[in-house]
UniProtKB/TrEMBL annotation:
This is Large-conductance mechanosensitive channel. Signal peptide: none annotated. SUPFAM superfamilies: Gated mechanosensitive channel (SSF81330). It comes from Xiamenia xianingshaonis. One of its GO terms (molecular function) is mechanosensitive monoatomic ion channel activity. Keywords: Cell membrane, Ion channel, Ion transport, Membrane, Transmembrane, Transmembrane helix, Transport. It comes from the Bacteria.
């Protein structure tokens, strides 16, 4: 059971899972904008131009164009996108704080070990990689972890 939980934790901590979650949330918010655009502006405009059934609640004289609902949907989208941005920023900060783990070198001194990063796109790569999986840049030498003395408390 512990191994299962560790695998789940590793799965959740992958960057791709967070990106997908953000895409779903922002996509859901954007759906509201598109629905509002069609329901409140495009459809009533078509009904006004080509005639059709009765339209209640006229916002623009002679039409049922409801700019207020559309602007409200846009504001909701911006609010949701900003909250998701703050969540991702916070999660990235926590992940970056945990990426430099304290270890001891051969002399017994505490050092911080940081994973290698691509010098071109600055994304994390695996130790020993010769090509970045994110931007496909080739490295002149295999990527290596870096160690530096731990900050004094």
């Amino acid at each position: 059971m512990k191994n299962f939980l560790n695998e789940f934790k590793e799965f959740i901590n992958r960057g791709n899972v967070m990106d997908l979650a953000v895409a779903v949330i922002v996509g859901g918010a954007f759906t509201g904008i598109v629905t509002s655009l069609t329901d409140n502006i495009i459809n009533p405009l078509i009904t006004f131009i080509f005639g059709g059934g009765s339209i209640d609640g006229l916002v623009v004289p002679g039409t049922a164009i409801d700019f207020g609902a559309f602007i409200s949907a846009c504001i909701n989208f911006l609010i949701i996108a900003f909250v998701v941005f703050l969540l991702v920023k916070g999660i990235n900060k926590v992940q970056n704080a945990g990426s430099g783990l304290l270890k001891r070198n051969k002399a017994g001194e505490e050092v911080v070990e940081t994973p290698p990063t691509c010098p071109f796109c600055l994304e994390e790569v695996k130790d020993g990689a010769t090509r970045c999986p994110h931007c496909a840049a080739a490295f002149s030498e295999p990527a290596r972890k870096t160690t530096k003395p731990a900050p004094k408390a």
